[in-house]
């Protein structure tokens, strides 16, 4: 079964790996710069941003591992493949963002709320924030390009594609880099208000807000990975596209049941009840079923297909939405 509707984008692993590597390098450079600035100036907001960037750097390592381990082909011990390892390691990254980034930033901000210290090195922080924005922006643009290409072909908003996507590494980098840019703006405001008013509470408040932002992003990423780990179904457009392609098979007359579940980014587990064309005896029917299964598994998006025979009293399924584009699973 050859179906553009159900196939992932060409070489999604390659695109995602490039996105992760760009993010890793950018976050490492940013973390070093922010750490130097925070040690020199003692700014609460900059300390929070340092924790944020070190958390992101560690997370990119988890995401790189996710890409490597999740892309392995299935074997005797894992007949359905290793795709869900992507969500496991992406979950570790999300927890790291929450514990290291959010908790440290909020704790640091609260501890600095009553501080009365003056800071005479504001411009160092401003320079580091500006350089960080350029580096984080470069990483974000790479993630945005990958997401925008698939979203435009699906004719949906970029944010919806990122949230719905089975590609957990793309989602993680996209949200982490978005949070990084917003966090830099919050840190800038906190430091600026500290400079203008002489009140360190604004700097501390900036640290707390950065922590809250990271916590919200982490919760979203944890929830999305949880959903895919317990068995997320694809969108109705993908289901209709797969159903349409099964019905186009010359040996299939109708489909009465269809179950699709993600086994990893762009990989599906398919179970269907079908009626075969003609009235062959049991032996020939079994052979025909296996042949149709193999044809369906020729599709790059289908990791495993299991077919059973439909009973005469079961209602037939019909596609309800237009064909999904190639990028619908990516």
Number of β-strand runs? 3
Total domains: 2
Which outline best applies? elongated
Radius of gyration: 25 Å
CATH architecture of the largest domain: Up-down Bundle
The arrangement of helices and strands along the chain is HHHHHHHHEEHE
Terminal-residue CA separation: 19 Å
pLDDT average, as an integer? 85
* Assigned CATH class of the largest domain: Mainly Alpha
Biggest sheet descriptor? 3 strands, mixed
Query: What is the CATH homology-level superfamily of the largest domain?
Result: Cation efflux protein transmembrane domain
Number of helices: 9
Find the structural class using helix and strand composition: mainly alpha
- Helix content class: 55-70%
Q: What share of residues are in beta strands?
A: 5-15%
Any low-confidence stretches, pLDDT <50, length ≥5?
1-12
CATH topology of the largest domain: Alpha-lytic protease prodomain-like
